């Protein structure tokens, strides 16, 4: 296929779930993939899967909420691949609590891992994109960043922050050919959503809100990410592409 | 063939020129058999020639989307000849820029009949086929005007309330159809193009107005019809099989929600 041939791509949180789905797909399309995760075994496994399929990949450790970690893995990527064409800010954590039940430390960690990380990684990667005069940034937000839902205040707020940060970055850097878009997945089967997807009763409850009547897969999100990373989307910037089987229909 | 539409049957309305023609070429290039409809048959035929020249498959039909008889006839012929319909692109549209108070009733009617009722008629005909085959994709070409009302930036306003209202209706219709189509695997989405370099802009914009328009677009340029067409191909493909009821902006960042 080779739609991303030679494009150096950084995918954070690519050790499993949606991040792994995107990394594998991009690897198939000829991208050179830097697989970032705090779960070292998982990220090595993703990189191995890409290489076994004939692609090119390296696995690197990195906590995206720490600027020193970000500095380190970006430097390593530049050392190995020499440039960065595509950045997928996917790393994130989940959590299901009301505002009153959320501890201050839990709030801080949620916002640091999900939102501050996008700021930190972009701050380090955008200058590299400016050097080559072009870049594609894809931020993985969430349908929860759009609507109000029970017991997810910290998570939803962090994801809503990503959606708006996407627009701010797009306004500032699109004139320099750096395209910034978000993808907001609905219910996708990953490690983060096991309690919803594996439990038949819970799944039945959640599916009643999804017109298509099924949950999504990492491959569904990877297809959208591939479109936003390719030149086919060269007039799209600042957009939040919602991939949710129609779940947000009732709130738009 | 980036989007693998081999074996798919597509109908594109307003395929005789502009963005519609480019959509026909793009879908055909990706392997689809394209039914090109336009109320101007000569233009549709010209698009057909362009597709055939590229060794792809297409057939032109005369069809006014606002006339139920026309629509039924063409969809019936497609059903008889091909037995199925996988993709419908509701692209046909008209606009008559006029200040609100001066809009003629006939112009209001023609705008709504073509842009909104036309989509209703074609989609209703498509639903029948797509329901029986348990799947299909409908893609509606909307416009940023549905949210902006024609206001692009201070000092740059396109007076076409009827056009903007028709496109807003189209976005809403997208969601209703998506909801009703979902149980049958019919996915319905819209694309909302921003300023695209078409004959309309080339002919009606002074270079000063064009410059001003471009200065409002974060990407610093007008879009190309090909960039709308590739978004259509994406939504028509299996890569977008979990996307429904959505409006995909292809606008260079000129309007963000």
Shape of chain A: globular
Largest sheet of chain A: 7 strands, parallel
CATH fold topology of chain B: Rossmann fold
Measured on Cα atoms, how large is the radius of gyration of chain B?
Answer: 17 Å
Strand content bin of chain A: 15-25%
List segments of chain B where confidence is low: pLDDT < 50 over at least 5 consecutive residues. Answer: none
The total count of strands of chain A amounts to: 7
Q: What fraction, in percent, of the residue positions of chain B are helical?
A: 40-55%
> What string, H for helix and E for strand, traces the elements of chain B in order?
EHEHEHEHEHEEHEHHHE
Number of helices of chain A: 8
**Tally of distinct domains of chain A:** 1
Description:
The complex is a heterodimer of chains A (252) and B (257). Chain A has 252 residues and is of the alpha/beta class. In chain A, 45% of the residues lie in helices and 15% in strands. Chain A is built from eight helices and seven strands. Chain A has helices at residues 17-28, 40-52, 67-81, 104-132, 153-173, 194-197, 200-207, 218-229; strands at 8-12, 32-37, 56-61, 86-89, 135-140, 178-185, 240-243. In chain A, strands 3-2-1-4-5-6-7 form a seven-stranded parallel β-sheet, sandwiched between helices. The model of chain A has no long low-confidence stretch (mean pLDDT 96). A seven-stranded parallel β-sheet of chain B has the order 3-2-1-4-5-8-9, sandwiched between helices. A two-stranded antiparallel ribbon of chain B has the order 6-7. The two termini of chain B are 32 Å apart. Chain B has 257 residues and is α/β, with parallel strands linked by helices. Chain B has helices spanning 18-29, 41-53, 68-82, 105-132, 145-148, 161-181, 199-204, 207-215, 225-236, and strands at 9-13, 33-38, 58-62, 87-90, 136-141, 151-153, 156-157, 186-193, 247-250. In chain B, helix 1 runs parallel beside helix 2, helix 1 packs across helix 9 and helix 4 (105-132) runs parallel beside helix 6 (161-181). Chain B has a single domain, classed as Rossmann fold. Helix content of chain B is 47%, strand content 17%. Chains A and B meet through helix 5, helix 8 and strand 7 of A and helix 6, helix 9 and strand 9 of B.
């Amino acid at each position: 296929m080779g739609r991303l041939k030679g494009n150096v791509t950084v995918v954070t949180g690519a050790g499993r779930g949606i991040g792994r789905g995107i990394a594998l797909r991009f690897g198939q399309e000829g991208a050179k993939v830097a697989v970032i995760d705090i779960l070292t075994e998982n990220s090595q496994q993703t990189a191995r899967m890409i290489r076994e399929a004939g692609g090119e990949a390296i696995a690197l450790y990195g906590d995206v909420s720490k600027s020193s970690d970000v500095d380190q893995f970006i430097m390593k990527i530049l050392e190995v691949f020499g440039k960065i064409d595509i950045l997928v800010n996917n790393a994130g954590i989940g959590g299901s609590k009301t505002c009153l039940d959320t501890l201050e430390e839990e709030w801080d960690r949620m916002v640091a891992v999900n939102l501050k990380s996008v700021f930190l990684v972009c701050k380090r990667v955008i200058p590299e994109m400016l050097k080559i005069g072009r870049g594609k940034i894809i931020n993985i937000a969430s349908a929860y960043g759009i609507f109000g839902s029970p017991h997810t205040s910290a998570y939803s707020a962090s994801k809503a922050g990503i959606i708006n940060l996407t627009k701010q970055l797009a306004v500032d850097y699109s004139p320099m050919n750096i395209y910034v878009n978000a993808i907001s997945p609905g219910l996708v089967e990953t490690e983060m959503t096991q309690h919803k997807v594996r439990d038949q009763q819970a799944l039945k409850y959640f599916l009643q809100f999804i017109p298509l009547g099924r949950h999504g897969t990492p491959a569904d999100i990877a297809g959208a990410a591939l479109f936003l990373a390719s030149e086919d989307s060269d007039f799209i910037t600042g957009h939040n592409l919602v991939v949710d089987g129609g779940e947000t229909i009732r709130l738009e | 063939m980036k989007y693998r539409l081999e074996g798919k049957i597509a109908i594109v309305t307003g395929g005789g020129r502009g963005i519609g023609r480019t959509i026909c070429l793009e879908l055909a290039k990706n392997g689809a058999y394209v039914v090109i409809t336009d109320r101007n048959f000569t233009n549709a035929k010209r698009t057909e020639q362009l597709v055939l020249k590229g060794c792809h498959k297409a057939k032109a039909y005369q069809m006014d989307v606002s006339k139920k008889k026309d629509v039924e006839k063409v969809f019936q012929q497609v059903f008889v000849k091909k037995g199925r319909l996988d993709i419908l692109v509701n692209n046909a549209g008209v606009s008559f820029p006029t200040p609100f108070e001066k809009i003629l009733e006939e112009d209001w009617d023609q705008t709504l009949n073509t842009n909104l009722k036309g989509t209703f008629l074609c989609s209703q005909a498509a639903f029948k086929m797509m329901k029986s085959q348990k799947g299909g994709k409908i893609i509606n070409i909307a416009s940023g005007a549905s949210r902006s009302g024609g206001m692009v930036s201070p000092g740059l306003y396109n007076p076409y309330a009827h056009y903007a209202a028709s496109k807003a209706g189209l976005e809403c219709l997208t969601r209703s159809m998506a909801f009703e189509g979902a149980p049958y695997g019919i996915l319905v989405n819209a694309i909302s193009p921003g300023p695209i370099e078409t004959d309309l802009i080339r002919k009606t914009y002074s270079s000063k107005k064009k410059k001003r328009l471009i200065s409002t677009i974060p990407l610093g340029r007008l879009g190309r019809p090909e960039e709308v067409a590739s978004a259509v191909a994406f939504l028509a493909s299996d890569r977008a099989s979990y996307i429904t009821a959505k409006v995909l902006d292809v606008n260079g960042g000129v309007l963000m929600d």
